[in-house]
Design a protein that fits this description.
It is built from 9 helices and 6 strands. α2 crosses α3 and α2 crosses α4. The strands form 2 sheets. It has a 4-stranded antiparallel beta sheet. A two-stranded antiparallel ribbon has the order 3-4. The longest helix is centred in the N-terminal third of the chain and has 32 residues. With 265 residues, the protein is an alpha+beta fold. 53% of the residues lie in helices and 14% in strands.
Amino acid sequence: MAQLSKIVGSILRDMIVAQHEANMYAAELSEAYRKDGRMEKFQLPTVSFGDVELDLKYGIKKADNMPEQYEADYEYYKHRCEDVSSQLAKVIISATASVKAQQNENKEVNVLLEKLSGQSQLNDKFHAFLSRKILNACYSNFSILVKEDGSFYNDVLFKVSLDVVSAELLDNKDFSDMVVSKKDNLKSILSISIEKALSAFIPMLTKNINFNRKRKLPSMEIEVSNAELSKYSTESIHSLQLRIHPNYLPISVIDDENLLPTEKE
């Protein structure tokens, strides 16, 4: 006896595992072919799923009375991430602007930090830019950012934010060339300041955020074995017909706003 949802989920999961194992074996063969000079030009054997049709016969053993279940509310996640990314961007800019260059040769950096520290066009533009980059990263990393209980993984949010800071600020060529000098370690000071600010702010930011919503969903316990189904009348045996179409996700995530989820009109 099992739940119908668990049986179907198990079938889909096993298909993914089977395809993964086939891919891994093909990758191992590829390496073996490459090492063997005689086989290097052979065509690599591989296999992938096509459309699969499944006809599952089952009998209903028990129907539960709408048990409560929790699921992630992705629309709410997108909405809250807009605010989260905006506040994180403000903290990053504030931590950046609070650092003062230590050498006179960094006058150009001092001017930049001064503009970032107050209300300015540069501050507004950089905040919008940084906020959008963090938001994109939150969308792309939903599966690793949210715990099963619906709250944030603070350490993952911290890392995602720092990755954006590195890519768009500290390791940005124009900015990096400006702050790197032989006489000081301004880049390192900026990094420490930002990390310290984020580590203190993120727990407060995410404290009361939860993306799970409660839903009542029907649940059935079923029998699928031939031995048990033989006890049911023909009229009591149900049939679930599924056509499963394989889909493939790219290994790398492309930073393209057109690929991000959008609000339904």
